[in-house]
Amino acid sequence: MTKLQFPLDFVWGSATSSYQIEGAYDEDGKGESIWDIFSHTLGKINNNDTGDVACDHYHRYKEDIELMKEIGLDSYRFSISWPRILPNGKGEINQKGLNFYKELVDQLLEAGIEPVITLYHWDLPQALQEEGGWANRDTIKYFVKYAEVLFDELGAKVSQWITHNEPWVVSFLGYAEGEHAPGIKDRKQALQVAHNLLVSHGLVVKKFRELDLTGDIGITLNLTSVYSYSETDKDQEAAQLMEEYINGWFLDPVFKGSYPKKLAQIYENQFGKIDIQAGDMDLISQEIDFLGINYYSRALINYNPNSKFYGIESIKPAESDYTAMNWEIYPDGLYDLLTKLNQEYTNKPLYITENGAAFDDQIIAGQVNDQRRINYLKEHFKSVYRAIQDGVPVRGYYVWSLMDNFEWAYGYSKRFGLIYVDYNTQKRTLKDSAYWYQQVIEENSIGID
Ligand code: BGC
């Protein structure tokens, strides 16, 4: 067996987010988030599941850190629930909520696990939604204040910060498709939200620099590698538009200080101008320390005049393998994406802040044999390895997810974890993939046949 050896300082981690695992939705002074409201609205979530209890991580974090230790994680990426810190999104700080994260960080550090904090993984305080949420520019200043509270409290201990997780999902699934909280279907508003999220990212980075903190700050984008189904002009144009829609709409502002031209024109013709103020693009494109990438699948695109979205149609090849989310398994796409980012956008360090797969895991006699997840991870690690060999500065990798959890609109029906969670008893069981990952981390290499 050949071993592919990773760089000595390569970071092996795993990721979660607050609403998906914490539960304790109304405890210790926490305010309501838009996801509390959304999941409590009948018909929004598969099986009407909610995050009220989720994995009960709020009460079981010590046990969960023990499991991270057992796997051997170098680092753990989690997010902070804004309404736990500021129940109304602004104003009074809820000390108990803050203490939870201070304790979590201390315990992680004691366990030798580097904490990486995402400031916003979708659980906006409902009080701010009532004032328009991210469509209202005022939310930006409250976000900066919230970030400042955390920088003051945790800035000396936490060395890696992520402003936003997947602003594409927040804007387009939350405000255009309505599949996510706050469940709005208004594409013009979604474009304003995307812009406001980006400005808030810029202002938080600026604040971080002003405070002279020693750590690093970046943003996590959901990115995919886009391919044209054929060589025809029509298909290639559709693929190009998809590239602008899914990747460019956030990558271009962050690294080039402008929106992708073609799609920007289409949107403007259709919806008119959104509110972009003087200086916004400079704020958005100021220097960051790293880029976080969430990669799950590719997009294979052809042109279909009947498609409701500018002729863009996504093809799902029959011969491919799919996860339980019906996402095509396409590890080469990660290699293509990493090299493209490095060539066209940035030579800053890149982190895979999420990659992983949902499968219909079964627990049998206390064991979860998830060979398909092991294969998925191994193939994606190989792509990361190849990119590193080619000189792309990929510095770390975080499996999504540490444990099975609340998969947004899918509720608990999709299991992404390295750890199996029995939601009736809250018993955690390491899946075979967790033991496999343990060995990868220990040897800092993957074995290939
Ligand atoms: C999100 C996670 C989510 C995962 C799988 C990403 O879009 O950041 O919260 O669970 O993908 O869908």
Quick rundown:
The protein is an alpha/beta fold. The protein is built from 15 helices and 15 strands. It has an eight-stranded parallel beta barrel with strand order 2-3-4-5-6-8-11-12, surrounded by five helices.
- CATH homologous superfamily identity: Glycosidases
Shape: globular
Q: Give the SSE order as H and E letters.
A: EEHHHEHHEHHEHHEEHHHEEEHEHEEEHE
Residue ranges: pLDDT <50 for 5 or more in a row?
none
Q: Which range best describes the helical content: under 10%, 10-25%, 25-40%, 40-55%, 55-70% or over 70%?
A: 40-55%
- Over all CA atoms, what is the radius of gyration? 21 Å
How much of the sequence is in beta strands?
15-25%
Count of separate structural domains: 1
Structural class: alpha/beta
Name the CATH architecture: Alpha-Beta Barrel
Pfam families: Glyco_hydro_1
Organism: Halobacteroides halobius (strain ATCC 35273 / DSM 5150 / MD-1)
InterPro entries: GH (IPR017853), GH_1_N_CS (IPR033132), Glyco_hydro_1 (IPR001360), Glyco_hydro_1_AS (IPR018120), Glyco_hydro_1_beta-glucosidase (IPR017736)
Family: Belongs to the glycosyl hydrolase 1 family.
Protein architecture, described:
Its EC number is 3.2.1.21. One of its GO terms (biological process) is cellulose catabolic process. One of its GO terms (molecular function) is beta-glucosidase activity. The chain is α/β, with parallel strands linked by helices and 449 residues long. It has a single domain, classed as Alpha-Beta Barrel (TIM Barrel). It is 41% helix and 17% strand. The chain contains 15 helices and 15 strands. Strands 2-3-4-5-6-8-11-12 form an 8-stranded parallel β-barrel, surrounded by 5 helices. A hairpin with an 8-residue loop joins strand 9 and strand 10. Helix 3 (57-71) packs parallel to helix 5 (95-110) and helix 7 packs parallel to helix 9. The structure holds beta-D-glucopyranose (BGC). Beta-D-glucopyranose (BGC) binds at residues 17, 20, 165-166, 169, 222, 294, 354, 400, 407, 416.
